[in-house]
Write a structure and sequence with these properties.
Helix content is about 50%, strand content about 15%. The protein is α/β, with parallel strands linked by helices and about 675 residues long. The chain has three domains: about 200 residues, no CATH class; about 130 residues, HUPs (Rossmann fold); about 160 residues, 3-Layer(aba) Sandwich (Mannitol-specific EII, Chain A). Strands 3-2-1-4-5-10-9-6-7-8 form a ten-stranded mixed β-sheet, sandwiched between helices. Strands 12-15-16-14-13 form a five-stranded mixed β-sheet, with helices on both faces. The longest helix has about 45 residues. The radius of gyration is 32 Å and the shape is elongated. About 5% of the residues have low confidence.
């Protein structure tokens, strides 16, 4: 039909002059007359009349079903869903539609009515294109069309822009009619329909994360929940290459708690949830695998089959209502990535309610045993918010493997100095000291780290990397560096992320006789201090902090400021209760250095206006002192959560009072005043 309509339009434009085409009200008959004569004009006129009658009849029948369907969805009065027992049709809806159509025909001239009808049709076509984009970008699990429009998203964008242009050419009447229809519909929704329905639009599904984010921030304040069983959650959305392997990988994260395997089946908002209840072979298979996993791994596994309108929100609620330590997800397929907005997975990476692991499975078919799937674990760790977490995760997985071994890797340019290599090796030894599995260090050479890691990956079974926030236009269109690494390497990949309040919480501190001594009291006495600074923005505070820190070490203020800014770009350090805790790693720093700064008033921290701080704690150290660095960060995080640190810092008016506030808080959380730790080798 579309091809026939286009062909007829092409013929009419070709045989009629522009002046005739603009003035005639019967273009089909006029074109037929110019080709076939008067007989052709009569024949095509009759055909056009019969066709229009048929189209009008179909249009009226379809239009009457709109109030009928809206009534069934509770967004129109219930009387319009009543069916006539005599005719079997929605009589009330037909009468209402007939009255409106007759009123329009009587009140408006044919030409104006045609313009209004054309304007509505064009607007609907444009909205359909918008709908296709929204459904593609939100990716609801129930959206599985049998036909997929080609050339996405360019065809849809052309349809939207073309529709807007055509509306502008129809004149003010058509534009006003469309605007009035949208305004009337909006008023009706907010005045009548909104309070009668609970569904959310697909746009809210994509963008409406504010409530969930607020819940996550509240969870940060109450991070120490000790009255519930720790849980590791494995959501199964469908389409995973081997959900059985995903479950067994997640079992390695369970430490005396419960493994929750949750199969989410997402249905459209208009469909009742009970419509999808019943026997399900996939759910039965996963439940059986969960039982076998519980016996094989000697852990508690609970299986849940959940039908929901919004799987992402359901998972968020489950994570926040339980003491969830980990969520282990399958990596999204390339075909599911979005073009115009960030993938919903990116939101999870930015705002996880707990530790998050995303697994890219390249092991092939599941053979029932994963103890020999990942014995050679490669960890690409850099000093920053995730390296201790990467070491913890790699260690847990290596311990589940036969002869599991960890290799820490970094990439240096050709010709790097021996000192640079030695510093990386020392840093890797520091991370290895956090692991129980055998570890070693590996340095790759090359200009492009992605190519170097891709070449090295052939010697390993699993690559573990961190997941910084995926923000900015470059990431939207080209993907993050970590995502490009995952696509380039040949082994399986596990990408992990911790929320802000748990960045450095995976530590086991041992106080042994070692050659590395850390005196907290001495570090605090020699800390860089700035009280009630008159700053209004984050860059101003970072600049003043860098100036003060530079006075206590051999590193320039500009280098420190760049490191502080880079740390914020990697992940916001703003925490609940108005404090930022940042730990930049700076090569060449001879000993850890602490900086404590307060401001006169709270200032926005980072790109989010939801986070404001008036206390900044900086802990700097070189990669060669990474264990001490992590211990200090973890200690200040504990003092912030369970001590009286923040109140004491805000009330302090001298450096002595700052020191006393820190030491009092350290005593409350049983933080050792002196600590020592040595790594292997």
């Amino acid at each position: 039909m579309m091809a026939l309509y286009a062909l007829m339009s092409w013929v009419m434009v070709g045989v009629l002059e522009a002046e005739n085409l603009e003035t005639t009200i019967t273009p089909v008959a006029t074109a037929a007359e110019s080709i076939f004569g008067s007989t052709g004009k009569i024949v095509f006129a009759v055909v056009a009349i019969v066709g229009l009658i048929s189209m009008c009849n179909a249009g009226i029948l379809a239009t009457t079903r709109f109030p009928f369907a809206m009534s069934r969805d509770n967004i129109f009065p219930p009387r319009f869903q009543q069916i006539s027992p005599r005719f079997g049709t929605p009589m009330q809806a037909i009468i209402l539609t007939g009255i409106l159509l007759v009123a329009l025909v009587v009140a408006l001239p044919v030409a104006k009515l045609a313009k209004l009808a054309s304007g509505f049709k064009i607007f609907i076509f444009a909205v359909v294109n918008v709908t296709v984009i929204v459904l593609r970008e939100t990716g609801p699990k129930w959206y599985r069309p049998t036909f997929r429009a080609p050339l996405y998203p360019w065809l849809q964008l052309a349809g939207i822009l073309g529709g807007v242009w055509l509306l502008s050419q129809l004149g003010g009447l058509a534009m006003s009619g469309v605007g009035m229809a949208v305004l009337t519909g909006s008023i009706w929704y907010f005045a009548y329909a909104r309070k009668r329905v609970q569904r959310r639009s697909a746009v809210q599904y994509l963008m409406g994360e504010t409530r969930a984010l607020r819940a996550t921030e509240l969870a940060e304040i109450d991070a120490q929940r000790i009255d519930a069983t720790e849980r590791v959650v494995v959501p199964v959305f469908g389409g995973e290459p081997a959900p059985e392997r995903l479950m067994r990988v997640a079992s390695g994260f369970v430490d005396g708690g419960v493994l929750d395997v949750i199969r989410y089946e997402e249905v459209p908002e208009a469909a009742p949830l009970k419509s999808r209840l019943g026997k399900d072979d996939d759910a039965d298979h996963l439940a059986q695998e969960a039982d076998e996993l519980a016996q094989d791994a000697n852990i508690t596994v609970e299986f849940h089959d959940v039908v929901t309108h919004n799987a992402k929100e359901a998972l968020q609620r489950h994570a926040l209502s339980n003491r969830t330590e980990w969520i282990v997800l399958e990596w999204p397929d390339r075909q599911h990535l979005r073009y115009l907005v960030r993938h919903p997975m990116a939101w999870w990476i930015d705002h996880p309610p707990c530790d998050l692991a995303i697994f890219l499975d390249r092991q092939g078919a599941f053979d029932g045993d994963t103890s020999d799937d990942f014995p050679r674990v490669l960890i690409y760790a850099r000093p920053g918010p995730y390296d201790s977490l990467l070491a913890h995760v790699g260690d847990r997985l290596a311990l589940t493997q036969q002869d599991g071994q960890i290799t820490f890797v970094d990439v240096l340019p050709e010709g790097s100095s021996d000192a640079a290599v030695a510093e990386i090796q020392a840093y890797h030894r520091q991370l290895g000291g956090l692991c129980r599995s055998p570890t070693r260090s590996r340095v790759e050479w090359g200009v492009d780290p992605i190519q170097a890691l891709a070449a090295a990956s052939s010697d390993f079974d699993l690559l573990v990397i961190g997941a910084p926030p995926e923000q900015g236009l470059r990431t939207v269109f080209f993907g993050s560096k970590e995502h490009r690494i995952a696509e380039a390497v040949s082994c399986s990949v596990l990408k992990v992320k911790a929320p802000r309040h748990r960045v450095h919480h995976r530590l086991e501190v041992h106080e042994d006789e070692t050659d590395e001594l850390l005196d907290l009291e001495r570090l605090v006495e020699h800390a860089a201090i700035g009280m009630r600074l008159p700053v209004l923005r984050q860059p101003e505070l970072l600049a003043q902090a860098a100036q003060e820190l530079a006075k206590h070490c051999d590193i320039s203020a500009s280098t420190i400021q760049k490191s502080l800014a880079a740390r914020e770009r990697e992940q916001s350090t703003g925490l609940a209760e108005g404090v930022a805790l940042t730990g930049p790693s700076i090569p060449g720093l001879h000993a850890p250095l602490i900086g404590i700064f307060t401001t006169e008033r709270r200032i926005p921290w980072g790109h989010s206006t939801r986070v404001e701080i008036d206390v900044l704690v900086v802990v700097m150290a070189s990669p060669a002192h990474r264990q001490a660095h992590l211990w200090l960060l973890d200690g200040f995080a504990k003092m912030k959560l369970r001590g009286s640190l923040l109140g004491g810092l805000r009330a302090a008016r001298s450096k002595q009072q700052i020191s006393e506030a820190v030491m009092r808080s350290a005593a409350k959380v049983d933080l050792p005043i002196r600590w020592s730790r040595i790594g292997p080798g």
